[in-house]
Amino acid sequence: MIDICWTGKEAPYLDDPDVRQEAHITIGRFGGNTEAGQYKNEDGCLVWADGNREWEFAIILDAHESAESAELVLQHIQSKKADILEILMLPADAAIPGVEKFLLALLASEAFRLECSKIQGETACLFAFRKGQYLWWLSIGDCVLFLFHPELAAMGQHLLNQRQFFEWTGRANAFDLSVPCYTTGRRELRAGINSIFLTTDGLLECPGLPYENPEKIMSALKYASDGQGVKEMLNVIKAHQVRDSTTIISWEASSSSRPLMPGNLSSKG
To answer: Number of structural domains, the chain?
Structure first.
């Protein structure tokens, strides 16, 4: 099983983009340019993935004011690893609602929120879980999840979640509200190769906005394999003197199942 956990506090990658390839998973990390005023990296990420490509579970975090909130989330996820993995091993129709229920209960728990109240800062976080032909996500804040596939691109669809500002977990906590605020979603993959791409906002808010258009990201991934597309993007934003840190998790998932189609088309197949 692929097992990766990292925070920018332990390895900030300032001025030095890093791309790591673990089987079919690409992780890109860049702390930003010190010449632009950057001096720390408060991002974090976690990846657990089945070696046979049956499933992937990923988290990216973009903390504010300090890295403590990102570290706290990852510590709690790691402490519940056995319980979460047990859920991920279930069939998709049980694993997806199961992991959603488990993570929401964890983030809303009194014990976790009490610890959040004692730390400095807060974090946006994005969870994604792919099992078989289905992709699920939980988004708190402004990290972004893309799903790239030619059929979706032809309809102008690339982005799965919408960036939400003023939403975090940590000292300022969306789960302390009387009605906790977050976004969840589920999506069926299309037939063939689907590219799943998570990123923090440094890539999207880079000076000159080289990757504001999702088609530019899709193009970089389409014509480069083994992490070269992610490496290219990090080198571009470095050249644009980006200050904010960027963390990327990307992988391809193949679906051989026949996806949902409109009745007048599916009846012809």
So the answer is: 1
